[in-house]
Amino acid sequence: QLVESGGGSVQAGGSLRLSCAASGYTYSTYCMGWFRQAPGKEREGVPAIDTGDGSTYYLNSVEGRFTISHDNAENTLYLQMNSLKPEDTAMYYCAADLFRVTACGAGYVPDFPYRGQGTQVTVS
């Protein structure tokens, strides 16, 4: 089970930190990430992280502004979002590829088989 929190409304230039609490599994290494979907647009993978070696992968438009991290002890995924722009407005979903059925990269996150219910981020 993946449960997101931390979304909200901010002004452009502001920051938000999203969290994703994972439970119900004990696999040690896997790929996790965030994807977003705005109304009328395709799902877009934002960042991904390999929980085994800590490698991270970012969508070009968020690199340098967003930071993905994973707390292995707490089994929680985070997304720190700084310098937010109106075009970052979307529903953000946490997703996991426990069995590594796809490659680990931002572009693959929307296809990960496990995902949460999403949290809304609105930037005005």
Overall pLDDT confidence: 93
How far apart are the first and last residues' alpha carbons, in Å? 31 Å
Radius of gyration of CA atoms, rounded to a whole number: 13 Å
Main beta sheet strand tally, sense and closure: 7 strands, mixed
Overall geometry: globular
What does this structure look like?
This protein is mainly beta. Helix content is 0%, strand content 47%. The chain contains no helices and 11 strands. Strands 2, 4, 5, 6, 9, 10 and 11 form a 7-stranded mixed beta sheet that branches. The radius of gyration is 13 Å and the shape is globular. The chain starts with a strand and ends with a strand.
Concise structural overview:
The chain is an all-beta fold and 124 residues long. The chain has strands at 2-5, 8-10, 16-22, 31-37, 44-50, 56-58, 66-71, 76-81, 90-97, 114-115, 119-123.
Helix-strand layout with pairing:
Layout (H helix, E strand, L loop, with lengths): L1 E4 L2 E3 L5 E7 L8 E7 L6 E7 L5 E3 L7 E6 L4 E6 L8 E8 L16 E2 L3 E5 L1
Descriptive key words:
124 residues, mainly beta, seven-stranded mixed sheet
